[in-house]
């Protein structure tokens, strides 16, 4: 990894500015880590990468290489330009938050992606207006023809990565999902760190 490699700590969040035309490479370093990912217009966090608008734009449940990811104003903000993983990502699931862990029976505080988004943006002096639906990189949520969804272990391998090109000046936020009660981060696996590079 290069000097510019930044760590998204296990169970934590990080964000970075990505200028129009720059790339961000998001690395699933240890192989079975879901990385919740958001993008915001650098000049207006009320414009954000929107999964519902992106599904409509591409007429696809999960973006493929070459697809634009668009904002709630239907403008491309990122383009997926490379994906060394099998291409299994999720656009359906809300970011985990304190209420999600409450439903799972957790009484005390549990690290969560929504708070990780707040922390990552906060390091840059920004504050989200709400928690947009994330692009859940490497998250394996297969669906059935009757609409059923299930939580499965990732099908990725260590070092798999995706690369996005920025279509506007933006801020990309990432959370190494701390979900350790459902098998989404490997079978009973502990959440691990991930990494990214902007270039
Ligand atoms: Zn999460």
Could you describe the 3D structure shown?
It is globular and about 40 Å long. It has one domain (6-198). It starts with 5 loop residues before the first strand and ends with a strand. The strands form two sheets. It has a six-stranded antiparallel sheet with strand order 1-11-3-9-7-6. Strands 2, 4, 5, 8 and 10 form a five-stranded antiparallel sheet that branches. It has helices at residues 51-58, 98-103, 113-122; strands at residues 6-8, 13-18, 23-28, 35-41, 44-48, 68-70, 76-83, 135-137, 160-166, 170-176, 194-198. The protein is of the alpha+beta class and 199 residues long. It binds zinc ion.
Secondary-structure blueprint of this entry?
Layout: E1 6-8, E2 13-18, E3 23-28, E4 35-41, E5 44-48, H1 51-58, E6 68-70, E7 76-83, H2 98-103, H3 113-122, E8 135-137, E9 160-166, E10 170-176, E11 194-198
Antiparallel strand pairs: 1-11, 2-10, 3-9, 3-11, 4-5, 4-8, 4-10, 6-7, 7-9
The structure holds zinc ion (ZN).
Zinc ion binds at residues 36, 95-96, 112-113, 177, 179.
Briefly summarize what is shown.
The chain is α+β, with helices and mostly antiparallel strands.
Q: Largest sheet, if any?
A: 6 strands, antiparallel
The count of strands amounts to 11
Instruction: Kindly report how far apart the N and C termini lie.
Output: 13 Å
Integer-rounded radius of gyration: 15 Å
Helical residues, percent: 10-25%
C-alpha geometry: globular
Strand order of the largest sheet: 1-11-3-9-7-6
What is the H/E order?
EEEEEHEEHHEEEE
Give the number of helices. Answer: 3
Low-confidence segments, given as residue ranges, are none
The helix/strand class is: alpha+beta
Are any ligands bound, and if so which? zinc ion
Strand content: 25-35%
The domain tally reads 1
Average of pLDDT: 95
